[in-house]
Design a protein that fits this description.
The chain has about 110 residues and is mainly alpha-helical. The protein contains 6 helices and 2 strands, in the order E-H-E-H-H-H-H-H.
């Protein structure tokens, strides 16, 4: 984000504009540039996502079946690995798909 404060001088400004209280003496030009200084889809950023509703429902089913938080997470990770195979590493890095143990205890 870039904020530039400039004084705009309008040589043809009318008398009405000079007396307008809504026009500031120093106008501000704000230029929003939507670039990030970090990666958006890296493992480091994906681990901060919220857990998805589908994943929460899956864990609730595992808890109803009698799993503890640790065994539910291990069982879910095993199912995730069987389902995604070589893509498991990418899925496990995303907290929306694979929460941490602290989440399971809550």
């Amino acid at each position: 984000m870039t904020v530039i404060v400039k004084r705009f001088v309008d040589p043809g400004k009318s008398k009405a504009k000079e007396q307008d209280l809504h026009l500031p003496k120093f106008a501000m030009l704000v230029n929003l540039d939507f670039t990030h200084n970090h990666g958006l889809y890296t493992a480091d950023t994906l681990k901060h996502r919220d857990v998805s509703e589908e994943t929460i429902a899956t864990f609730k089913d595992l808890f109803v079946k009698g799993h503890s938080p640790s065994s539910a997470l291990n069982s879910y990770k095993m199912d995730l690995q069987m389902e995604h195979g070589t893509e498991y590493v990418l899925q496990a890095a995303d907290r929306a798909n694979c929460p941490d143990l602290q989440f399971c205890h809550r």
